[in-house]
Here is the input.
Amino acid sequence: MKKMDRKLRISAGAIVIENNKILLVKHGAARHGRSFLVGPGGRVENNENIPQAAAREVKEETGLDVNPCKILFIEDLVSPHNRVIKIWFLCEPIGGQLLKTQNAIDEGIVEARWYRKEELKDEVVYPSILVNINWREFLKDSVEIKYLASNVADDDL
Here is the structure.
């Protein structure tokens, strides 16, 4: 069997928690057949480091300013043609205003808002660990970085 070359991409994501709520963006149904929620994030550009990318993506997708504090997850997304390594940071909100940005609209994001845990039970959420973990664990100094591996369709990347 011939070894397939996958396109490799490094991405950064943000987990932002405030007042027992988590900041998520909602992508519309067009891309996946149904809407889904995900922490703000995206591709690391050549002129920035990974924490800078996480902060930029939050600003672009939500209008908020954040300070990336620590790594929570390393997500390894593998599809037939692509591989994305996404570093998820716990981020502290430090300013800005939650709003619908042009970058968000261009990416198919229909909403950015704060969600309570119980609001997620009937939603598709990425990374999916957010539905089943106590978010207070993220705030502990002793939090263990989790490796999240999954196989996905190319459309999901």
